[in-house]
Amino acid sequence: MTALPASAQDVVREDDKPDLQFFVGLGLQVRPSFPGADSYDLGPLPVIRVRRGGEPLPIRSPDQNTAFRLLGERDGVSFGGTFNFQSARKEKDVGAPVGNVGFTFEPGVFAQGFLSDNLRLRAEVRRGIGGHNAFVGDVAADYVLRGADDRFVATIGPRVRLADARYNRRYFGVSPDRAAATGLPAFDTSAGIYAVGATAGLLYRFSPRWAGYGYAGYDRLAGDAARSPITRAYGSRDQYSAGIALTYNFIVKR
Question: Does residue 144 contact residue 119 with C-beta atoms inside 8 Å?
Answer without folding.
Answer: yes
